[in-house]
Each structure stands twice: as structure tokens, then as C-alpha cells.
Amino acid sequence: MKAYWKTVLRSVKNNIAWLLSITIIMLLGISFVGGLGTISPTFKDSYSEQMNRDQFSDVIIKCKQATGFSNEALDLLGNSPLVESFNTLTSVDFVEGKNRLRLCVYDDLKTEINKLALLEGRYPENENEVLVERGSNRHTKYALNDKITLLGMPIEYTIVGIVGNPQIFDLNGEPFINTNTGEVDGSVNKLVYMQRDQSMFPFLPTTDVHVRFAGFGERDYFSEDYLAKVNEGVEGLKTLLGEENYAFLTVESCKSYALFDNYCDKVSVITLIFPVFFVVVAALVVMTTMTRMVEEERPILGCLKSLGMQDGKILLKYLLLILISCFISAMGGLSIGFLVLPSVIYPAFETMFFLPVMSKNFYTLSGVLASALMTIVVVLVTFFVCRNELHEKPSELLKAKTPPSGKKILLEKIPFIWSRLSFKYKSSIRNVFRYKKHLLMTILSVTGGTALVFAGFGVLDVAVAMGAKGGSYVGLKDATGAVAAVVIIFALLLCVFVIYNLTNLNIGERKKEIATLGVLGYREQETLGYIYREIWMMSIVGIVLGIFLGMALLKFVLFYLEFGALSDVKWYTYLLSSICVIVFVGVTDILLASKILKIDMTTSLKSNE
To answer: Which contiguous run of DSSP H or E holds residue 164?
Structure first.
């Protein structure tokens, strides 16, 4: 048993670079999927927790009659088993000069339902003192002790406090309802609160009742279950009060809530489509790496079999190695995804909303699924590759696999082109098609990475184009831009490790060939050029295909985002996406140069027979 564990440790030592690359690639995939997957639900939880703290109303009942709510109607609500609690106020929209003003007269400004959070100053103590909403203050820049007038009356009111209404967390404020037409006419740019017994308007009727239903407990305001229960409660209130004279507004009618929910849905589209693509590319590379690693240890497999070790025990060794890599990837990836990405992207929403403290809840489903999926894929690949190798006799395993033989390629049948190529380009082109598995994996990987980079830049372009239109699109630009930036960064990192990994595999497969070049008198730069030409040929093909695939991916994303078009993508984005991938491929080549040049000619040229 001791000897067995020595072989395990020796395999780790001999394959540490490949195992690390597998671990990092899987870690990138898991952190990307887990991080993006938790953004939307974490953001919704953040607001839901704040809404619970503020006792956000389940429904607002607005009276359509000028006389407002009658005492009988309020008594019905107070005695109904459907209602846990409610508060009353008067809400009036009117135009004063250039301002669209909303005056809210509360029976109690320190209400428990839809609590007004005092951000600066104090609550009114005299009849000529008022509060202003932080949202409207963003537009009008009121300060404490400023004087204002209301309804054209020759009375000055002093602002003694600035508050935050939990129902207004959209920075662009609330829609203004034109009292003459009953239609929305821009946004409220001055929202004032006063208390009825301290106001000059005690005669104003009660127009609004904010209701919280009984039996709900802690609410998940964005869940389908909560919305369904609210709709049931509203039906009960309609039966109680009648529908003719009242409008029943649930959280879905709240502008801030609806806008935030819509933006979260758009972010979810990006966080669903991109990760799937990302995981597929990462899984392909990991599969290739594991296949090559097992194939390179064929002599060890043959040796262990010849010593009488059972196939299952040999197989367990490689499964242990890959499971350790998967475990490290999952732990690291989930930690980065859950702790870092939401914290990086969350502040981007400050351009659209007043943000609450970010929730500590993390939705692990997407990250765990990504971890499980990638683990299953690489374990199955390892199992089948090992099993196929172990089916061979020990004598066959002790022999190195014969490298693929060179064959005539299609280009050779076109003399006009082939005859004009120098020997070094002919040999490189032949080699590209000789190692078909490496060709396919490199092109697929670069294509996938380029497509992700292009789509990320494309989303950024579209967001900027939409932001130029103003309004709510300005905030959307920053929110989607933050997500797009994460996509671009992770896609470029994936490109680096994918190219590094595949090139590293290629070098390992061709040590004898590279050593032969040294014996034949190739200088260092010529040897590097021999390998790099092949990488660049495959990479260029991958980049070109990646741009086209990226266009298709972006079009697909925009279709589900329901805004923007491919025509919004700037011309230089096509160039920039290609340059980014080219630069990262170049960096990878530089990192691998020393490994190519350090290949020992004597050892590599020894016969494996």
C-alpha cells in the first residue's frame, strides 16, 4: 500500500503543471457561473430584507372618489381578518411653476408601515415644518432649513428633515399623475411630507390606505408565492370594499419595484447564457488534458499491471487525482464566485437605485451545479480513458504510442499556392493537420474564448448606445456594463489558460521532434517559430470563427434582453476583441518559450522501444 501511494505522489509531481491548469480552468468556470448565478437572487434578497425591515405594504388602496375613504370603509378594513395593520394618508399631485409636486399628508409620519427613514434632520414639530423625499431632493438639491411654498399658498414651509420612502428606491423618482387627465406626465421632482395635525390642510380627504395582510410573516417580496398570496388577499379586499370606487396597487404596481425586477431579469439573461457557453469551453479543455495525461503515463500503467496491480486500483489513482483537483476548484471557485463577483457588480446599481445593505444570503445552486457537472464530465473522461488503456496488455502499454503519420493535405493538391510556400510554412501546415485532435481543440477553445470576449464588448457597446438615450437607460448602461466587464475578464483569462494548457500538451507530445530540430542545427528563434507558427495559424482561424460565433451569441443575448441590436456594436469592437485575444495568445507563447528551449535533446531522443 505504501508503494501505491508513492506512485500517486509521483504522478502528482510529474503532472503538477497539467493538474494545476485543470484546477485553474475549472476554478474559473465555477467562479464565473457561481458568481453570476447568485447576482440576481442576492440583489433581490437585499431589497426584500430591507422591505421587511421597513414593513413594506402588501397593497395600496387608492380611493377614486374626491371625498376619499369613508369612516365605514376604514372600519371594514380595521375589523377584517385579512388585514394585519394599515395606515392612512392623503396624496395629491399638482404642478407649481416648473415643478411637478406631490404632497403626502400622513396621519402619523412615524408610521410602522412603509417607514419613512430619517436620513438628515428631525421630524416636524410645528405646523409649518415639512420633510422632503431623498429621491426628489436628488433633482432639486434641497437642504435643511430651506423654505418652500405649497399649492400656491402665501405660506412658507421649512424643511426640517430628509427622509427615504421604502417605496421609492429608483433614483429617477416617482411618476407624476396629472390630476386633469389622470395620466402619467413625467416624474415627481418635489415630494413633500407633512403630518395632518400639524399641517394647514386638515380638511384634505384620506386618499390612500397602505395595507399589510395578516398571516404572511417574513415576506419574500420577489417570490411567485408571495405575489400569489397578495393577489388572493386583494380579491378578498375587493369583495369587502367593492371594486367600483377603489384601485388596488400591489408591489408589482410600484415603479421602483417593477423597474428593479425588470433589470434583475435582464441581468439574469446574461448570467444564464454566458456561463453555459463558458462551462462547455472549459470542460472540453479539461477533457483533452486528462486524456493526454493518462496517455503519457502508459508506461507506468504497463509497469503497474505487470507487477500484478488490479485495474480498479490503478484506475482509482487517477480518479483520486482528478477528484482532488475538482474539490480544490469547487472550493476556490465557489468562494470567489459568491464573495467577490456580487460585491464587485452590486455597486454598479447605485446609478439607478438607492441600494440597501447587500444580503449575506448566497444562492449556491448555479455554482454547485457547475461544480457537479464539471466533476462528472472529467471523472467520466478519466474513467473511460484509463479503462481503454488498461484493456491493453502490459507489453503494449510499455511502448510509446506511435505518433500520427503525416499525410498529404488538400493544399498540396493546389500547386499554384503550395509551390510558393517556404519549407518552414509547409512543415507547419502539415503538422497542424497531422495532430487533428490538437487542431480541433485549439480552434474550438480560441473560438469560444473570442466569442465570449466579443459578446462581452458587444453588450457593453449596446449598453452605452442605450445609455445615450437618457432616462432609465443611463443606469442600465452601468449595471449591464459591470456584468459585461466580468464576462470579458473571465473570457480572456480562460483564453490564456486554455492556450497555455493546449500548447503545453503539444510540446509534451512532440519533445522528440523539437529535440531533433536542435540536433539539425535550428537556432532558438527558429525552434520557437516552428511551434509558434502552428499556434498562430490555429489561433487566427479560431479568432475569425469566434467573431462570427460572438455575433450570433450577442444577437441571441440581445433578443432575450429585449433592447439594443447588433448594429449598436461599434466597428472597433470587432478589432478590439481580436487584438485582446491575440495579445493573450502572445503572452502565453512567451510564458512557454523557456519550456521549449529547455527540452533535453539527449533524453528526448532516447528510444522508447
So the answer is: strand 157-164
